[in-house]
Fold this protein.
Amino acid sequence: MKRTLFVFTLALGAMITGGCASYAVHGSVRDKATGNPISGAGVTLGEKNATTGAAGAYELKDVKLAPNSTMIVNAPGYFLLKEPIARQAHEGHELTRNVELEEGCSCAIHGIVRDKATGNPIAGAGITVGEKNATTGATGEYDLGDVHLTQLTGLLVNAPGYFLYNESVGWQAHEGQAIARDVELTRRPETSKPLLRQ
């Protein structure tokens, strides 16, 4: 009985180990337009992180891959890249993944700020994107002009009586040179007036 249990334990251990195999993932990060290597790019896959060197190379060791594993590559001045990593049947435990990043663009940003509940335009709302600022007019419209954008550039909108709006979602490379960003703000609840004592 003990021998049977011991053999079963070994078999179970082998199954678990086989299902959690580790991989080494390496490659290079380059500028899509020029082909030049990008140094200082951050590469993340699961719980592993690496930074590219002068030659744009990175290496991640002991990576646990899942069917939906995604590699995230980020570098200053470039659009964020999210790329699914799927191990091909012919690949062993060393995977090569070379990636190309697109440089951020100088784009014209405009849009309208409205009340989320009523749909009415909000005048006097402050808009900040990168180093550019604007204030909405009577129609709730704003125009920031040309702004240097990367995937991580944030949009901050603030108006009296409303909750602060902070969109951390980045700009997509396919959007072109003129980008519309309409925003809906949620009104803050009114503070109850204190009861007067009789």
User: Anything to note?
Assistant: Residues 2-19 form the longest helix (18 residues). The two ends are 85 Å apart (CA to CA). The chain is about 10% helix and 40% strand. The helical segments are 2-19.
